[in-house]
Amino acid sequence: MHGSQSKSAFDVRGHAIAREFAFEQLPVIAGVFALGIVAAYLQHGFLPGGEVPFPLAQVRVPIWHVVWMGIWTGYTMAVVGEAAGIFALPYTMSILQFTTPNVTPTTQLLTFLNPLGALLGFRRSRQWNLALASWVCLGGVVGGLIGPFVRMTLLSRVEPFTFTVGIVLVFTGFHLCLAALRKFVSRKPPKGIEAKFAAEARARQQAGLLPSGLPDGVSIETVSHPNGLLTVKFWNESWTVRKHFLFITGAGVGVISSALGVGGGFLLVPIFSTLYGLPMYVLVAATIPYVMVLSAVGLFTYGAILPMFLGSAIQPEWAFGLFAAAGGIFGSWCAAKTQRYVSETALKLMLGGITAIAGALYVINFFFTLPFRL
Amino acid sequence: MGMIMKSSLTQMLPYLPFLVLGAATIVAACHITFYW
């Protein structure tokens, strides 16, 4: 009885997923990929890839490899809950050898488009709150305007740039390992939202439904926003945050992220979860729109505002970024659909380890020349 | 037959991240060998 029930649930789910992919994902992925081809002809007059180097990147790489990079960075980072930029940036720099300053706006193009699927998904599941998002995003606008100037002044040479990327990678690596270990060490049953989530998932599974965990009616509501404070409520729990703290955090994270070419989720998520105890289900309402706003403002600053002050724009390698983003959208969608089957702890430990080691090599390379290329 | 394939696919899903990372390592190694 139970077997036949789960089989039919599996079939229904399979069809629903195939339909969702064909009608919602495939057009977007194909559209972004086609845009990449159009962008290549508009920017350079030809299609780079394979033996033809990307002119701004000055590297030879087949197009399928750029798409694949988008897929695997999008997938792995979405499974552990971080944006793809933090993995795509060192891979682009060290494996693909794209080290000209254009690498920063190019990865910003990727971090701008990558969270699109997640944004629509969270909006549909009503993990959405404009009051919470707007203050962080406003900070992101300020940060995105300043960061590119830091990149072109303090971090204009390859060495200090990779050194800073190294520090960021070490931080992210340790944060990932710590998160995995904390979950592994604490054998206490989860409390608050986590406990409710687990109970709801169990109940739904027993009823033969998808174990999605969030009941349909739940959304992030703004309870009150008296001067300077903002209280949001989600699933009968509430959190109060200071608006100016949201703004300052958004601006600070924005300067660092847009100077390097990453989304900013790697800093924003630990800050919000440790300082305010916001659960992942709530903080995505702020971080996902933030990453997109910051990347858009960063791209605009590199292309349109920098030339007013420094004389020349730093254009992204549009085709490269769009090809990677096409893969990234597919990768993060796969992650969203398969996440519940994957042991997050093992993956976090492994990715954290790799990230921290890569970062440490970048930092060491700044002081001593390593016997291999980075 | 289809059902068997589907259920074995589901059983493979927990290993997907490691498969993806393994493939990424191989592709990166090939790129270094042929393009550097």
What does this structure look like?
- The complex is a heterodimer of chains A (374) and B (36).
- With 374 residues, chain A is mostly helical.
- Helices cover 71% and strands 4% of the residues of chain A.
- Chain A has 13 helices and three strands; from the N terminus they run H-H-H-H-H-H-H-H-E-E-E-H-H-H-H-H.
- Chain A has a three-stranded antiparallel beta sheet with strand order 1-2-3.
- In chain A, strand 2 (229-234) and strand 3 form a beta hairpin.
- Chain A is globular.
- The model of chain A has no long low-confidence stretch (mean pLDDT 88).
- Chain B has 36 residues and is an all-alpha fold.
- In chain B, 86% of the residues lie in helices and 0% in strands.
- Chain B is built from two helices and no strands.
- Chain B is elongated.
- The N and C termini of chain B lie far apart (46 Å).
- In chain B, 8% of the residues are buried.
Largest sheet of chain A: 3 strands, antiparallel
Mean pLDDT of chain A: 88
**What's the helical proportion of residues of chain B?**
over 70%
Average residue pLDDT of chain B: 85
Helix content bin of chain A: over 70%
Q: What general outline of chain B do the C-alpha atoms trace?
A: elongated
Note the gap between the termini of chain B: 46 Å
Which structural class do you get from the secondary structure elements of chain A? mainly alpha
Determine Rg of chain B (CA atoms, Å): 15 Å
Using brief descriptors, characterize the structure shown.
heterodimer; A: 374 residues; mainly alpha; three-stranded antiparallel β-sheet; 13 helices; 3 strands; B: 36 residues; 2 helices
